[in-house]
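Sharing a chain and its predicted structure for anyone who wants a worked example. Both blocks are below, sequence first, tokens second.
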Amino acid sequence: MSTSARIDRVITTGLIGAGRPGFPPEGVALENNVWLVGDDSEVLVIDAAHDAEAIVAGVGDRDVLGILLTHGHEDHVNAAVAAARRLDTHLYLHPADLFLWEQTHGDTPPDFELEDGASFLVAGIDLTTVHTPGHTPGSVCFVAPALDTVFSGDTLFQGGPGATRWEYSSFPQIVESIRTRLFTLPAAMTAQPGHGASTTIGAESPALASWLARGW
């Protein structure tokens, strides 16, 4: 399929966990990927981490059709409200992660609930929401077949699944999400995660047995 749609990456850095138990008083620095999917006229933003001004600059003068959030963790949503206001757009989050969102934004809600299978059209291509619980209950990925890409949030990284160290997380569940929802995608499809370098479905799927053996 010929398309003018493209993927841009904005890397943002910020502090998370400031003042919270288990973190140093000033917080911990963390680098995130913010993905922009669209063309020269319109774009969807995937995650809104740390720095609303950097996201606004990456968007430029394009029309923003929405900010799609892969999950509710602080480092993926802490710039969401400010960015949405600056860009005059809506925020989408899976309802199972609303409790995490509220830890950062209190009673300021996202605009819309994401559901499994929800589709978004931008620059003539579709992004489809895939619910992939495990890292958090409401973790999702966004699949863009026309770009041979899945935006995998903190569900799948180069080298394995996302962390499952919290009481609301589940290693068996994240493995099942990856096995049944992501590893059924084409092997050549690129996975663009919430942090770090990209990988492919084919590069990660042979390691499933080793992940199960190590337990993380």
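Comments welcome. The chain has one domain: 6-17+27-214.
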